[in-house]
Amino acid sequence: MTEWTSEAKKERDAYLSLQRDASKGQDINAEDVIDDIRHHIDEELKELTIVTREDVARVIRQLGPPQNAERITANEEESRTSANQLKKPGAVVIVLGIVLPLIALIFELVGHACAGAFFDPIPSWWHVALVASVPIVNSLIVRNLRSKKGLVPNWLLGANAATLVVCLFYAIAFATLCIPGIMAVFYFGFGLLPMAPLFSLIATFQCRRYLSSNSSLAKQKFFRISATGALLAFTGLAILEVPTITTRIALELADDEQVEKRNAAIRFLRHFGHEDTMLRACYERPRKFTNLAALTISRKNTLNQSEARTIFFRATGRPFNGTRPPSLYSREGRWQAFDELTWEFDEDRGGAAVAGRVKGLFLSGSRMDCRIHSQAGLAYLEWTFEFTNRSDRQKEARTQILLPPDGVVSRLTLWINGEEREAAFAGRAQVREAYEKIVRQRRDPVLVTTTGKDRILMQCFPVPADGGTMKTRMGITIPLTMLTELEGKLLLPKMIERNFNLNSDLEHAVWIESRSELKSNLSALTKGSKDEQESTLHGQIIDSELLSPNAAIHVTRADAPTTVWAESAGEFDLTVQEFKQSPGFTPDRLVLVLDGSEGMAPFYNGIAETLQHLPEEIELIVFHASDSQRGLDARTAPAKPQSKTEASDLIRSYQAEGGQDNLKWLVRAWDIAAADMNSAVLWIHGSQPVVLSSEQALKQRLERSPNNPKVFEIQTTPGPNRLLEDLGITPIKRIARLDSLSSDLQRWIESLDDLDGPWTFARERHSQSTQDEWAKYPQVTDHISRLWAAAQIEALAQQRSTPAAIALAQRHQLVTSVSGAVVLETAAQFKAAGLKPVDIGTVPVIPEPETWLLMLFGFIVLYIGCKPLKIQKQRG
Amino acid sequence: MPDFFDNWTVQLRKGLVEFCILRTLSHSERYGYDLVKSLVTLPGLNTPEGTVYPLLSRLRTAGLIEARLVESSEGPARKYYSLTAEGRKQVEQMNIYFNTLSQTLSEIGEKGAQHD
After folding, report:
1. What's the CATH number where B28 sits?
2. What is the gyration radius of the CA atoms in chain B, in angstroms?
3. Which residue of B lies nearest to A22 if distances are taken between CA atoms?
4. Going along A487-534, which residue ranges are E strands?
5. Same domain, A32 and A152
6. Do both A65 and A183 map to the same domain?
7. Which residue among A312, A427, A468, A497 has the highest number of C-beta atoms inside a 10 angstrom radius?
8. What is this structure's pTM?
9. What is the pLDDT of residues A112-135, one digit of tens each?
């Protein structure tokens, strides 16, 4: 039953009264007309429960002004035009609802002004479509209302409601920018764009009023269509923004002071986290948003980059810089000025961390030249890097390189104005200070320091802007990893972390030469012969091939001597190297710590299978380093020995998720192993880009009792290991990756069963006076002296004899845990830093002149020098 | 030029609304409200709803149409309009006139005006 308000009745009666007046004196029955119109109004409003004055007014607007039948045909158009003048949107709606949002959208799309300075309002093309819908729908409404028909299709009512929701959302997001916008207009005369959403909201609402007054639909139907449009827009926004919003909230909770909240948030992020949002947080500055949802809902956004990067690892199990950085940032045209204020600015420049990927910086060329000295059981490899910078400002290239086991950097070169400059080797603090000072002056240095055992950090600056290049080279002395008495492997260095991208067509040009037989599993490397004695392996390999264990080169040392010796340039002592089998090691107890991080899942079955080959007499305890074992505290986890079958079944049942804290489980494993006199800890793990707790507890144990238990580690996939970096000099032994994880583990397990241990090179120093004693053995390259020195330096460092260790490193020109290498641009810079670059005559080269070659050279010089004398004598 | 077009369309529409009412009713009897709603949506006619009712009254006074009330379950009785015999005769004459006019216009469009 429809009820009429008194105002509604008054409105109707007033209109009917006017109609009666208009019908007077005509050849029509006024009461008939009034009766018909009354019926008409009743029909229009019959679906309403309560009829208000506005409802009646709407119907009356459709009916038009009271009509005189005589004048109808004559004045019909005139009356209609005057009625419609009130219903047609004007210039204000066109400017604020169509032109302004369109300009704002195009401006942001082209210039990324807001994205660069504040947050990204259109992070996807779906967002662009939503924003574009505002001027499009408004223009359609204006066009329809201003047309002669003046009719608007019903769907436009829904579209108008949808755009109202979009405008409201963006008006809220931009609310905080409106005040600066007003101030900018006041002071500079521009700055309207931040207010575009608010103005569009007003204009769109105005369009709605016009639609309402022109619509012939019943109020309920009008509402139904509008609600559908609004709901669709809301759903669209929710689909676009809910993952981002929930991830934002979880990111902040993951940094909460309460452990329970933190863990719950991490679990949420692991299952539902929006990766792009997490990645953006890794590059954002505190209280600076790159994301619309973050701005809309964030409570405080005090999350800093470091915390975000930790959370990213805990949630995904991957380092944040292992992924391409978020794509939206300001770079174009006039907004360059904002670059330094945004996260595109490399805040870690000159620092000791590789940190996030830097835009526009690429490794454009890579070349490895290597000579294997099979008699000496080592190789010398020179790796040349060429960086290109396509951005518009200077950049620093940083990369962490995993060296082969016991490898050491023995040369560093930088090309300055096309000329090679050699490095100065000195204490790491001294070289870093020199580097940072020169970086601040924006000149050309390159620095290499260690970042843990067998890990180095190379950084060079500046790679010039706008396509500029920078070229540097490092020489690495690498001992062969011997599998048997005759067979060995040459492991190649790998970039495990970098702040630059690789050119899409980048290949590492590899050239390896030796007098031994060489083999490779990589089909890209082909065999060749340099001459009758020298064989080569050469080709181009892509970075993923270099990172794989397949990159190891198989070397056969047929007839290689067991004892060799070498003189060292500028040294009086001799280095003698013996190739022998070390004593075997079979632990009574083995505590296995298995990383529970996401990337480990594919390896669990293989590990479970391989453990079956463990010698029977070894007691096995397995720990799964994972926070998913609720109620199991790493500090008090029981030391329950398991049979091989039990352990294998257990490992197969493990679930790997997120990034896990391995440290506390390692400490627990060490404690359990240390209870036995002859025990070992084996840590099988993925990349450790983040350390989630303090390393001091483990460091203390390893320093105080380095020999028992013995700790071994093997990494499943290439990547940084912050834990090992933080531990520094450590007795943890690395199991080299030469093949699949199962094969490498199997090889290690087999070594536990041997009475005799692996074949290794032992180097000792002897006085020059004993040279006659060693003369019967082959003299080889002085790289064996460098390897001896590298081991000696680490031993001195462990004894905290740092000055002696640095002096030895300087003499042998090595990058070690106590020393680094730096190339500066000018002699004055070296002098100012208290450094001296190495003499070019003392650096290793490829091919290194053998002794007989040097003698031949001497003879030639002598011959040429004597020849003029002979001629003179003949003439005389 | 838009003013000329607007004035011309106003002139052309004079009388057309009445013709449309009669022609609609020549097919069947119609409920007044429905008749109005169908006429206002006709493309090109541009007639406000309120203009139709006075015209219906005038046609009824002229004896061309008649009305009858039919009880409705949804509310008050509904007024249905239909043609009288006189009205039907008038519609036939109007149809013939309009068709001739329309044909003439078509011929002019095709050949242009010709004088014998």
Report:
1. 1.10.10.10
2. 17
3. B54
4. 487-490, 494-498, 501-502, 508-514, 517-520, 526-529
5. no
6. no
7. A312
8. 0.67
9. 777 766 777 887 888 899 999 999
